[in-house]
Amino acid sequence: MSLFEEGLIEDIGQLLRQKQQPTTTTTRVGSPGAGSYSSLAGRFRVETDRVSRVRLARKMYDEDPRYEGIVDTLARDATKGGFQVEVKNNPEAQREANELMRRLKLDDRLDDWVRLTLRDGDSFLEPGVTKERNITEVTRKPALHMRRNSDKFDRFPDPTRAYWYTEEVYMQQPTGNALWFAEWQIIHVRWQHDEGSRYGRPLLSSARKAWRRIDEGETDVAIRRKTRAGMRYLHVVEGDEPHIEAYKKRNEAALNDVNVALADFFSNRPGSITSIGGDSTIGNIDDIVHHIDTFWIGSPVPKSIIGYGKDLNRDVLDQQKEQYDETLDAVVNWVKAHMIIPLLELQWLLKGILPETVEYEITRPIKAIVKPSDILQIAQAAQILRTLRVPENVIALVLARFLPGITPDMLEFASNEPAAGDADRLGAIQQQLAALFPK
Questions:
Q1: Band of the pLDDT at 28, cuts 50, 70, 90?
Q2: Is the pLDDT higher at 394 or at 90?
Q3: pLDDT, position 194
Q4: Total domain count for the chain?
Q5: Phi/psi at 397 (nearest 5 deg)?
């Protein structure tokens, strides 16, 4: 449960209702294909399909290291380095943002939220608010036990009863014991969400059929290798059945001991031993490779990023890395829009600050680890920018993006106290620039 004090939910709900404005849209008249929630059968189909998708996605995550690697890598890369909120026109809003990030330890927790959202397709995050109207914690509710109480246009007819939690399965509103949440009490994060639908989809949800074939195919190959790959021998023993049984008895140790690599057989009758090779098609896994490639088409993470793949050259790797970085930028923007901004703006509203009046930007430090040689190059770049008469605040803003944990304000303060010898170093850099760019 959250930290809501008695009566606080109603007070905050009243505050948010005053901010909301009624809107008119043609989608309220009718929308093709939007009636999936209008009947009990349609609602049952949506809920059962969602449950089956999530359960299979969790099985994929638990049993297949490839899928787990895709999800974990994307979540880690999208949140690595953390995020910084920079408010331009409101010191109070900046202070509240900094305190929120510190209290919630967002830099550490975003990774888990993103990972679980990618796995399940949805995350229901409940902010915990104290009587001082501070968000002090955020809990993730069980995805399969939360329901979104929206209409066929995915809007809330009653914002005070927007979500409900119960361990029972209801296709309509619950008639038994259920816990209701107002719209603002839950931050519903959805991955691959289609407009008009209630829920998101797990990562690689479209690859479910390919994954089943991969799982079955790899199991078949493992069984065939174990039962049909070994070398067999045909022993020809002349005589009747008692002679064959006597031959087997005399050579029982060699015939039954799997640890015997070489064995000698002895007989006083004519005969022969012929070797029979194992199944020659055991190594043919082209069909499985095809299904793996099909499975991976929908993955934002290339195979090479997690060390899975072959026949790759540097040009292909560079191209895949460039495409992955572009995809990662979109994922980072999704994290900002659906996780950080709702929490941030809710905290401002709780403190009486209208988000519309705040000019702010959410930035993300560079992902790579900064080495001492990188710091030297960054410092040289700063001096070069100064020779070009770039304003100091702009230089600080640029450099802060490459220095995790350093804010533009810290750099501007340091630049106002130049150390001895800066003029000599600046002169040397100017000479280097003159040599590189002669007039």
A1: very low
A2: 90
A3: 87
A4: 2
A5: -65, -40
Comparing 10-24, 55-69, 94-108, 247-261, the range with the smallest average pLDDT is: 10-24
Domain endpoint, select from 204, 221, 256: 204
Q: Are 115 and 75 in contact (CB under 8 A)?
A: yes
Q: Are 62 and 75 in contact (CB under 8 A)?
A: no
d(CA 58, CA 202): 9
**Residue 88 belongs to a domain:** yes
Contact call for residues 92 and 116 (beta carbons, < 8 A): no
365 falls within a domain: no
pTM for this one?
Answer: 0.71
User: Buried b / exposed e across 48-61, counting CB within 10 Å, b at 16+?
Assistant: eebeebbeebeebb
In a domain, 1, yes or no: no
| Residues contacting 326, CB < 8 A, separation 6+ | none
Q: Is the pLDDT of residue 26 over 60?
A: no
Region 363-384 average pLDDT: 76
Q: What is the pLDDT of residue 409?
A: 64
d(CA 269, CA 239): 8
Three-state DSSP class for 189?
strand
Q: Which domain holds residue 421?
A: 372-436
